[in-house]
Amino acid sequence: MGLKKLDVPTSSITEVKKSPMDVFAQARKADTGVYVFNREKIAGVMLTKEQYEALIEELTTLRDTLYQPVERELPVPEELEELATALRTTLAKGSVISARYLDERMVATGFITKKTGFGGVTEMMKELEDSGKIVYQLRRREHNKVIYAEIFGEAQEFQRAAADKLMIRKVNLIER
Fold it and tell me: Which residue in 107, 151, 158, 167 has the fewest CB atoms around it within 10 Å?
C-alpha cells in the first residue's frame, strides 16, 4: 500500500520552528491550511488569522441556521409556567438527544414514560416520523385538566449506530 498524497500544502515542525511566517505565507498563497508534520504524523494545521476567522464565522452561521426553531411555542397558561420552565431547561431547542434520554428527562419532570415494553424507543421514533412530534401526558392533573407535552422534532440519521437521535424543534404544553 502506497502513501496517500495530500491535496493540501505540508510542512514539518522543523520548518515551522525556523520560519513560521513562511508557513503562514504558504497557507495564504494556497488559500488553505498547511498540515504540519512531526515524525511523519500530522501534528496540526496552521491557518492564517483570516482563514481561521472565516472558518469560525462559517461555523457560527451554520449553527445559527441549524438551530433555528421551526415554529414558536404556544403561550403557556400561568399555572403551568413552572412546568414549562423546567421543560425549557431540560430540553433545549436545537439540541440533539437520544429518544431514550428524552424519555428519562420527561419522566423525571413528571410525565408518563413512552417506553412501554420491548422496542419503546422504536415506537417513539415512529410516532415522531408519523406526526412530527412525540406526545407525553403529565402524571398528575392540574385543575381537573389533563396536561400534555408535545415535543416537536426531527429524526437525525447522520449516524447508523444512533438511530434513536432527534433534534428538538419546539415543546408545547396543552391543557385538555
Answer: 158
Residue whose cell numbers read 500544502 = 9
Query: Domain 10-66 falls in which CATH fold?
Result: YefM-like fold (3.40.1620)
**Cell 483570516 sits at which residue?**
50
Greatest Cα-to-Cα distance within the chain, rounded to the nearest angstrom? 77
- The residue to which cell 433534534 is assigned: 167
pTM of the full structure:
0.55
- Written as one string, the DSSP assignment of 30-49 is HTS-EEEEETTEEEEEE--H
pLDDT digits (tens, 9 = 90+) for 88-115: 888 888 888 888 889 888 998 889 988 7
**Across the chain, how many H-helices and E-strands are there?**
6, 7
Domain ranges of the chain: 10-66, 78-175
Beta pairing partners, 98: 165
Q: Is 117 helix (H, G, I), strand (E, B) or coil?
A: coil
